[in-house]
Amino acid sequence: MAYSLKAVLADPGAAADHLLHADTVYGVEQAAGRIGPGGAALLELTLRPLPALERENYPTERVRLVIRPDYTVHAFPLDSADRAFKHRNPPPLRDLCLQYPGDDAALRWIPEDGLEALITLVHRHLLYEEAWRRSGTWPAEDAPHGQPAHGTHPLRTAETQQEARRWARHPSPHQKRHPHL
């Protein structure tokens, strides 16, 4: 069962401890949590790369997550002033652009997925950013920035189309959309 965002908001320190000691998320080397302004949960994490990527000298990443009481999430890479990012929101926030909020829920993290899936999304995103810096190519289907002309951005690869069908979700009408990711 996923560690709920409600539990993270209630006790960010316990959530950080969970990430450090439960075998539910790969690569969490350090974690600290506290309550921030407006009741937001602030988590500061140190994430090590996968072993094969560590051998390729991928960096250990530090990130600050801000989870607001409305479940809006912002992920801020730390120690990143001298590095380029392909998918980062413009100032003033400069947080990571983790996903396109208009895409089908099968292709997005939603709060009901819990903390572990969120950390995995952020960690994967940071690894993809490093792969892009090294090769100039995003290592998965790359969602364009901005609003599509109609509906959602089209899925270009057969693999992503297949995964969207495989992981299809049909949220109930009362579930709230979380556009700030």
Tell me about the biggest sheet? 4 strands, antiparallel
Shape: globular
- Rounded mean pLDDT is 86
If you compute it from the alpha carbons, what radius of gyration comes out, rounded to the nearest whole angstrom? Answer: 16 Å
Q: How much of the sequence is in beta strands?
A: 15-25%
The tally of structural domains comes to: 1
The strand line-up of the biggest sheet is 1-2-3-4
* Number of E strands: 4
Number of helices: 5
Distance between the termini: 23 Å
Helix/strand/pairing category = alpha+beta
Low-confidence stretches: 172-180
* Helix-strand string: HHEEHEEHH
Percent in helix = 25-40%
Protein name: DUF1249 domain-containing protein
Biased composition (Basic residues): 167-181
Organism: Streptomyces thermospinosisporus
Region (Disordered): 137-181
Q: Please, could you describe this protein's structure?
A:
29% of the residues lie in helices and 15% in strands. A four-stranded antiparallel sheet has the order 1-2-3-4. It has five helices and four strands, in the order ααββαββαα. The chain has 181 residues and is of the alpha+beta class. The protein has helices at residues 5-10, 12-21, 51-55, 114-135, 158-166; strands at 28-35, 41-47, 61-67, 73-78. The chain starts with a helix and ends in a 15-residue tail after the last helix. It is globular and about 40 Å long. The chain has one domain. Residues 137-181 are annotated as: Disordered.
